[in-house]
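User: Please run a holo structure prediction.
Assistant: Happy to. Please share the sequence and the ligand.
User: Here you go; the ligand is calcium ion.
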Amino acid sequence: MNILLVEDDLDLASGLVKALRHEGFTVNHVTRGREAVLSVKAEPPDMVVLDLGLPDIDGLQVLKAIRSGRRSLPVLILTARDGLDDKVVALDTGADDYLSKPFEMEELLARLRVVARRLGTSQNSKIELHGVSLDTRHHQVLVNDLPIKLSRREYMLLMALMENSGRVQTKEMLEQKLYGWGEEVVSNAIEVHISNIRKKLPADFIKTVRGVGYSISKLRS
Ligand code: CA
């Protein structure tokens, strides 16, 4: 599940990114409204967590722009404005849910799980490719119907590749998905994870695209 987080408070954002990734969500973080609108167009997420007080354009403008393009994309508003009017305006503009700051991380996660479950009923939570099945709802990976153990980062890496099967993921894209900013990333971290995951998966499941990155083919080769 890909979440676009739009939040200009860097301390709050870094805590959120960590917590969301820990939950198994893939997070893309931007600090400005215009970036958010572009990002939704370029790489549509499954869900948006949107702060209203942004430095360039108001979060409600962002919400309107999102709604004009992708009507069904779930948006959870996060804001310091807790007046009833603001809530009503946000919901009328098309927000799916609303959380006032300060909030408990647990509450946000619980609400996102609700949205994820709702999506899960219309979207498939299982990705199956060449005998490998990844269940995003239960965080489980089966190889020929038998469960395998993956670390949190190995799981996230495999999910990123399987969600984007048929497309090459560069090392930089994968690093961004696996690590928060400010987090020290060893230069060969991705290679090490890939090598560990490969030991648990069918031979040749993850292909190396020399000098570019990694991919999993959509079709059986
Ligand atoms: Ca703000």
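The two ends are 27 Å apart (CA to CA).
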